[in-house]
Amino acid sequence: MAPSGKNYHCEGSCSNVPITAMLIEELSAIRKEIVADTSTIHLEKIHQNYRESAINLLHYLGLRRHDRRELQMKLATQGLSSLGRAESHVLATIDAVLRTLRQVEQEPLPPDEIPETIDFILGLRLLAQHTESVLGPSPQGRNVRIMVTMPTEAASDYSLVQDLVMAGMDCMRINCAHDDSSLWLKMIEHLRRAEKAVGRSCRIAMDIAGPKLRTGPIEPGPTVMRIRPFRDMYGRVAAPAKVWLTEKSDAEKLASGRSAGIPVIPVSSNWRSSLRKGDRVRFLDARNANREFAVIDVCNDGCLCELSKTAYIVPGTLLCRMRDGMEQETIVGDFPALINSIPLKINDQLLLTRDSAPGRPAISDKDGCLIAPARIGCSIPEALDHVRPGEHVWFDDGKIGGIVERNEEHGVLVNITHTRAGGGKLLADKGMNFPDSELLIGSLTPKDLEDLAFAATHADLIELSFANTASDVLELQQQLQKPGDRCPAIVLKIETRKGFENLPEMLLAAMQWPACGVMIARGDLAVECGFERMAEVQEEILWICEAAHVPVIWATQVLETMAKEGIPSRAEITDAAMGDRAECVMLNKGPHVREAVKTLDDILRRMQHHVSKKCAMLRELHIAHNMRK
Fold first, then answer.
1. Which of 121, 398, 547, 580 is buried most deeply by CB count within 10 Å?
2. Which tens digits make up the pLDDT trace of 141-185?
3. What is the pLDDT of residues 489-505, one digit of tens each?
4. In terms of Cα–Cα distance, which of 572, 514, 596, 578 is closest to 541?
5. Using N-to-C axis directions, what is the helix angle for 90-105 and 51-63, rounded to 10°?
6. Phi–psi pair at 5, nearest 5 degrees
């Protein structure tokens, strides 16, 4: 029991009222206020699975409407709960403190005080139940689930999917912004086969792409291939360049397969099949420089060659094989032009256009005077109608930023205010964010509606990208009621400032559905809210969702370096450990994603012994044992 309030008074106060009595008065007023807040909700609209949770959410929002830090300090000095872990059982926490205070003051319970409906145990149980309904049962020895985004290869490589299930994947995520329904179905078939082989189940999440704002196309660069050997610090050739000569039909396959990183030159089939190891292939490059390939290996789908001097090759370049004084010629076939980009530096201007014309860099005269600013299109031109001068715009996950100068007939003129040192390069199909703008665009595109028909049939949970308002959530529910009797869970992806600010209203709308969750899409969300605010924003989302007993998926850039390069950074390991605060952690695709899943599985198993949500778990410390030796 707390010390008697008879001998404790508020510091600096002349009042003789005990601190316990003052705390009772303050907590009772808070309790009355937050209970009254529940009158604002139409409980009959909330699904029966979430009615108690909706009430608790409103209680929590009422508790956090004002700064409670001074009250927390007063409670802590009396050895009482400071309300810092009240999320899943708000009223029960307040009532527990009030009971203790009333015992000290020997006060009876007010006869008209409504008892809490969610006690400590029920609050935890509701979150666990709702998590299982969305994400499936927790794996043995680990409470947090692992979600993995599928690469295109998952449609053709069964072993990849099986390895991921064996490594600990609990949910397969299919991004509908990529591939198509035929490939998605093959991924799902591989998963079902892997489930039987491994002996564990795995949920299917389908991410509906939504109205992602992206940069439009850019004029292609020159169609030229530069091939150069590796040189040391003195400019001497340390290793020759390698290049594949192959049939045109195999060039694209080789470029993305085993020869990744090695230039691939398309040539005629008959000429290529005549090459032998040791042959020399001569040519004049695009600069009329004499160059020569040496064939070092021959296989069924191409020839591997070496080159000791830098060469520039274009379609139509004449290649001549020399053997025993005999010549045999062919020409280089077509290959893709270089990917072009728009160079931008601070104080440059960029015109965001409403038409579909390819973008281009700025145009200057021979003296360097600007004739026309750089320009690029927008994937959703109508969004530009709502942009106003003075508002911010960000490109490519915040790598380039600017401020709108004016909105004119042909587009929106942006003054660039943020790039990396030396300037940046803007590519086609990169994300655009307007965090200050009211864009007034719907959450579901015509493509999304087509994808929903497939998702409603095959997915266990459907992720709504760019969820911004309660009406977006209700529209998704209306669309899902059409295809049939299946009722997949819905997951709100919070990736805009507007979505974050409207989260409570969207949760109450989502609670009209039998099962729902939230994804913290930290990539776009960091750009929208500001990188410096990201830590507190994700904390607020975690708190609000716990109060609603709604599971959270911790997403974007988790162990990203490890998935892509095979070795994680120290910061990534810490970030992955923080994911234990959520109910699921999502990994993105990468060539080393198998290892990333194993590492994440190990991290999450270790961390659950130390932390449960915001609460530190006081398991024994080995270092404390050492002090006794």
1. 547
2. 999 999 999 999 999 999 999 999 999 999 999 999 999 999 999
3. 999 999 999 999 999 99
4. 578
5. 60
6. -75, -5
